Protein: Cytochrome P450
Organism: Escallonia rubra
Amino acid sequence: MHLQLGEGSTIIVSSPEAAEQVLKKHDLVFAQRPNFYANQIAGYDQSGLFFAPNDDSWRQSRKICTVELLGAKQVRSFKSVREEEVEKLVVSIASSSGTSINLSEKILKTTNSIVSRSAFGNKCRGADDFCQALKDGNECSSGFDLPDLFPSLKFLPLFSRTKPILEKDIFAGGTDTTTTTVEWAMAELLKNPKEMAKAQAELRHVLEGKIKIHEEDTHELRFLKQIVKETLRLHPPGALIPRESKEDCEINGFLIPRKTKAFINLWAIGRDPRHWRDPDCFIPDRFEESSVNYMGTNFQYLPFGTGRRMCPGIAFGIITTELQLATMLYHFNWELADGIKPEELDMTEAFGLSVKRTHPLNVIATPVPFA
Ligand code: HEM
């Protein structure tokens, strides 16, 4: 779809086939992000990684990100942080058991603590302000400190330019997307009690009365992993990936001029009826026998994007999501607050940079005695 927005051309890419053209065949042409006015504010004048132009500084930043911060070894090294914060979540939910709680808020706080402790070594000064700012879409006034968690980074060339990434991109990118995923997964499970029961049966069978869930336990949770995949198909937090062409190219017989903005519509791609049976239904089982994965090679399923600008935080995002979900489902039974029936749960999506729920998830949690 072509939109003429002011002087610039914009294309919306809504099919797996067209996404493959843009993100694979013309990957290098579309490795830029558009420089919107909003980016200049939210993206700190393109100084962060997400909105950075495709240049040496971005390459250096990305390397630091993938090797020093978000590589498999680094992600593993933050295991105790994730487990501690998720344990606090359990305590916090248990303290309000039997009464209505705003689960969206609790998930946001937990993810925020996990990401900030991993990125900064301690809880973000003004974490509550930051959570509020994420909810409101405003700028956080508190600012962040970068302690000496990664002292070696200071000696890398361009460190002063990459510092903002550690401070803002990782924090904001990691918190918002992961929170949204956990929240939608819980909402879908509350709306689909059969899937909830199946997930809890798997957990209680695999964990067999364990008091505490460790990250390794999630490896065996096949159905839980399918739930996360299905949630990201229906609710990709970054529903529109922004890219821009750096030179003319041809796609499906159309000339796409230089500086055309392209939005890859992951939301539409994940619900394409030519590729997905009952596309609007939450059916985690569809991934049972499927080889479709997160790695960006299946163009009908791109929740983390693909190519040069693909998300570097997949491992961090997935384990944080899985651990929170597994723990909440294992330790508690869940129902919707205010007498709302599963089929009545409002699933309206809010307008914003990431696709969140319009209404918070108000629930009642009952602790499971054996857990
Ligand atoms: C469920 C969780 C997450 C989802 C669904 C997600 C999704 C995405 C998507 C769709 C993109 C754009 C990719 C493209 O243009 O092809 C992206 C980029 C990015 N993500 Fe994530 N993300 C998640 C978690 C994280 C986490 C935990 C971090 C860091 C801690 C992170 C950091 C980034 C960064 C820095 C970029 C920009 C990469 C670049 O432009 O080179 N993300 N993410």
Observations:
- The chain has a mean pLDDT of 87.
- The longest strand covers residues 8-13.
- DSSP finds twelve helices and nine strands in the chain.
